[in-house]
Amino acid sequence: MTVPSAEELDSFKYSDLQNLAKRLGLRANLRADKLLKALKAHLKHEERKENKNQVSNVFHHHLTKLCLLTEQLIVISDDLKHAVLFFLTRDHF
């Protein structure tokens, strides 16, 4: 469902505002000014939720990358530790 911007709502007819409210699950039998205000508040709330989800997804992506890099560093560290121990314990003759 394509949802209009808050600015676009200002040009909607009352019947269009009612139909949109019904599609969004909101009360549609309010006065025009109240209906417009309710729709704008709803759109703002949904936009904030979407932004929060996007930030959360980006955070999760970077956290996953950080975990993978940490695992790689642990492997490299173990390999380096074994190499140093081998070097220190081998015969020098």
Automatic annotation (TrEMBL):
Q: Which GO BP annotation is one of this protein's?
A: mitotic cytokinesis
Q: Which GO terms describe its molecular function?
A: DNA binding; microtubule binding
Q: Which UniProt keywords apply?
A: Cell cycle, Cell division, Cytoplasm, Cytoskeleton, DNA-binding, Microtubule, Mitosis, Nucleus
- Give yes or no: UniProt keyword Cell division: yes
**Which domain of life, per UniProt?**
Eukaryota
Q: Which InterPro entries match?
A: NuSAP
Q: What does the UniProt entry say about where the protein is found? A: Cytoplasm, Cytoskeleton, Spindle; Nucleus
The terms describing its cellular component in GO are: microtubule; mitotic spindle; nucleolus
Describe the family membership recorded for this protein in Swiss-Prot or TrEMBL.
Belongs to the NUSAP family.
- This chain belongs to the protein called SAP domain-containing protein
What is the protein's species of origin?
Urocitellus parryii
